[in-house]
Amino acid sequence: MEIFGIPLQAFLGQLMLGLVNGSFYAMLSLGLAVIFGLLGIVNFAHGALYMIGAYVAWGCMEYAGLNFWMALIIAPLVVGALGVLIERTLLKRLYKIDPIYGLLMTFGLALIAEGVFRDQFGVSGQQYPVPDLLQGATNLGFMVLPNYRAFVIVASLVVCLTTWYTIERTRLGSYLRAGTENPALVQAFGINVPLMVMLTYAAGSGLAAIAGVLAAPVIQINPLMGSNLIIVVFAVVVIGGMGSIMGSILTGLMLGIIEGLTKVFYPEASSIVVFVIMAIVLMIRPAGLFGKEM
């Protein structure tokens, strides 16, 4: 059986691989959406934090002998602590001025981080093995799916939906949203707004680190891995709607699948299809698919 001249097996296989890529897009765009939606910062350092998370996982294995599961816990904590340092020393001075300064600051931080890691590790990349528990593959009939890639899809969905539920459906999430919209009023009720802001940026940084750890066994870890991906992820956030949590999740998964299918039907366009969709969406709905019109 064929679909538009493409064997069904190849079509479904590329669809599944697109879903894996979409899982990474969803996780990274989620962290960006959390930081922008709650703090109003266009965080260009997000790709660098993703890269650092992967290197922390590699360092845990290389220097401390720790396995993947320990790295999946340690890396978000380390990168989250780095996020606290960035927020307390730099970003907190920029909240009440034009957002462009936050963008320039985080862009500069990303360049510094990339330069430091390139000087330390070079650009050839580091290998990170798939954990023993997730070795092997499962025959789905139309393709043989590596168990680790299936785990990435499930883990990404769990992290994304848990984050969405925490922000949109819990009391903590309501405090966060209220604190960013009217900090003086929330502070009057005895809630420590600066602490909430700091922890929000740390949580967004931790989400980037989780994505980095999950990506480590799939791609070569190198200092450019964040900068190679961050532009696409920003496009995902813009298409979904800046600050929309669920919009970023759904758009990331959707665009990963579309990109995968484009590689089947028109491979030459696979590297630009996301940006073409972004241009079309912005012409029709400037706030994004799930964003709120001003």
**Under the CATH scheme, which class?**
Mainly Alpha
How many domains, as an integer? 1
Q: What order do the strands of the largest sheet run in, or round the barrel if closed?
A: 1-2
CATH topology: ABC transporter involved in vitamin B12 uptake, BtuC
Low-confidence spans: none
Characterization of the model:
The chain contains eleven helices and four strands; from the N terminus they run ββααααββααααααα. With 294 residues, it is mainly α. The chain has a single domain, classed as ABC transporter involved in vitamin B12 uptake, BtuC (Orthogonal Bundle), CATH 1.10.3470. Strands 1-2 form a two-stranded antiparallel sheet. A two-stranded antiparallel ribbon has the order 3-4. The termini are far apart. The model has no long low-confidence stretch (mean pLDDT 88).
Summarize the structure.
Helices cover 71% and strands 3% of the residues. By secondary structure, it is mainly alpha-helical.
SSE topology sketch:
Blueprint: E1 2-3, E2 6-7, H1 8-39, H2 46-64, H3 68-89, H4 99-121, E3 137-139, E4 144-146, H5 147-169, H6 171-181, H7 183-188, H8 193-215, H9 225-240, H10 245-265, H11 273-284
Antiparallel strand pairs: 1-2, 3-4
Keywords:
single chain, 294 residues, mainly alpha, ABC transporter involved in vitamin B12 uptake, BtuC, two-stranded antiparallel ribbon
